[in-house]
Automatic annotation (TrEMBL), chains A, B:
EC number: 1.2.1.11
Species whose genome carries this gene: Mesobacillus campisalis
Entries under InterPro entries matching the protein: Asp-semialdehyde_DH_CS, Asp_semialdehyde_DH, Asp_semialdehyde_DH_beta, NAD(P)-bd_dom_sf, Semialdehyde_DH_NAD-bd, Semialdhyde_DH_dimer_dom
Protein name, as recorded: Aspartate-semialdehyde dehydrogenase
NAD found in the keyword field: no
Length: 349, 349
């Protein structure tokens, strides 16, 4: 999106799995940049990166780092965002935050541009980027909600390891090599690095992403439940989630059951609607074995939808399969897309 | 289960992934055997196997192979069963068939011993062993149906590659090695060997198991739907399934949402019931990160259940996570268990 004016953009968490995708996405989108600041923890500061062919030194993220910054993309963990995002705002930057730090704050818009770009108009300096697994689901559900009304959603996820960071992907690869050589797999990171128990992810499925809440759901599951209602402005929507980690590097998949408010809708009606929906690519032809899969979505910004079929018992019930690159639409691309939309709406001073 | 009398047992498909587990299970259960016949296709005939320390030559399965056989365990594909199971019955054998050939025939019991052992009494020579993904689900659901009534089930599966045979597991391992070495993954078997398109399963998830029906569901999904109703004698049960293949060698997992007929049931009530249920091992303590996982269920006969929690919107709705070794309870063990139950009920002449 070339523009007359260039912006000073900061990427916080520039060495992380998502941060690196943010940098690539800013490049590939030809984002109007006058200056880029790549920020990280003290540990990674001093490393070099390349942006648009120019070498850039990564600097430690401090309050002063945001002097003169127009747009700051944060993806360095919630505790960093809590401390530094207000400092960036104080210095005049708009923050797009890809952590859970502010997502459920009433004053902070939680935005998926295809769904609720208008919420950006009410920002107070910080815009939250939703959880990866939430984003791809609401992109697929919002056109259905708008046209037919949406009553209930039950989702089971098939989530990739890169959602837990680059170190988790390396661990999965090491475990996989070990098992193929008949050795023991060592587990130190998944499901949650800071908890006591770690389980092998190679050739396994772990039904825990993030910590558990008192109600038996995980934080990841509650994020999907609460964020979906907020993004869609639909607090009475019934949502339930089961979130599972798979031995897949990148690409989240979701088995979604949903009930509409409207009678008489066919699977063909839903396919027609989603074929034209923003951000969605319909891949749905069982006769040709066409449906989305994570291994084939990597590096693409879209949300892929297939296996759309009507429930056999509930006239208003349907099933579908939703896949997207969790590092792109689930994180980096959605953040950059928010930044682009802020510029288009004239909201970056 | 030592018995006074020994039986002549035949295993048809003795060289396959399930057949090999059947042989191991007969050994480990100390099944009362006077003679064992290991049968296969002409291609594998002549190979040697060891049963209870004795070398046994594998023979080509023919109608005459069943002369004198008391119990025949079939797992060599539906077309073999259709031809040879009636021949075995004609010669006085009871057949336990682990293919889909007869499962939905009205005259043929479809049996999971924990659920409907009584149906064995009405057999006409052939007993069908249900689909692997159905078995583990009904073992977990039947105690709930009996005590609270069951209205609706929505399941998303996470199925292991060994369900598609030993060659598919080898292919997954070869693909995995290739990808880790930066090479292309070659796909020739999954999702369905006989169809045109084959997709990589390594580091991927494939939302197709078996062929598609006209209604958009796969045969595997329709098996789960129809078999569940038949086994539970509950034709009005609402069931929907989405079946997905994962890069897991052995161990099927299932994310199961269900609605009871009864109000006022708590997650604790369900845990108490399942802790005592036949064939079920409860692994459910989020505070200790205890829940079932496929990598840790391999080689065990039980159905492992965890992540039991109440739906946040529906008073009668619950979620759970069900894991079992698809080659054992899903196939070989359930078949041998049917044979043991036939003997206990005095149904083997």
């Amino acid at each position: 999106m070339p523009q007359e004016r260039g912006f000073h953009v900061a990427v916080v968490g520039a060495t992380g799995a998502v941060g690196q995708q943010m940098i690539k996405t800013l490049e590939s989108r030809d984002f109007p940049i006058s200056k880029i600041s790549l920020l990280s923890s003290a540990r990674s500061a001093g490393k070099k990166a390349v942006f648009n062919g120019q070498e850039v030194t990564i600097e430690e993220a401090k309050p002063e780092s945001f002097e003169g910054v127009d747009i700051a993309l944060f993806s360095a963990g919630g505790s960093i965002s809590k401390v530094l995002a207000p400092e960036a705002v104080k210095r005049g930057a708009i923050v797009v935050d890809n952590t859970s730090a502010f997502r459920m704050d009433q004053d902070i818009p939680l935005v998926v541009p295809e769904v609720n770009a208008d919420d950006l108009k009410n920002h107070n300096g910080i815009i939250a980027n939703p959880n990866c697994s939430t984003i791809q689901m609401v992109v697929a559900l919002e056109p259905l909600r708008q046209k037919f009304g949406l009553k209930k959603v039950i989702v089971s996820t098939y989530q990739a390891v890169s959602g837990a960071g680059a170190a988790a992907v390396s661990e999965m690869e090491e475990q996989t090599r070990a098992i193929l050589e008949g050795k023991e797999a060592e587990a130190k990171i998944l499901p949650v690095g800071s908890l006591d128990k770690h389980y092998q992810i190679a050739f396994n499925a772990i039904p825990q992403i993030d910590k558990f809440e008192e109600n038996g759901f995980t934080f990841e599951e509650m994020k999907m439940i609460n964020e979906t209602k907020k993004i869609m402005h639909h607090p009475e929507l019934e949502v339930a989630a089961t979130c599972v980690r798979l031995p897949v590097g990148t690409g989240h998949s979701e088995s979604v059951y949903f009930e509409l408010d409207t009678d008489g809708v066919s699977a063909a009606d839903i396919k027609t609607l989603l074929a034209e929906a923003p951000g969605v690519v319909l891949q749905d032809d069982p006769s040709q074995q066409i449906y989305p899969m994570p291994a084939y979505c990597v590096g693409k910004n879209d949300v892929f939808v297939g296996r759309i079929r009507k429930d056999l018992d509930n006239e208003k019930g349907f099933h579908m399969w939703v896949v997207s690159d969790n590092l792109l639409k689930g994180a980096a691309w959605n953040s950059v897309q928010i930044a682009e939309t802020l510029i288009e709406l004239g909201l970056v001073k």
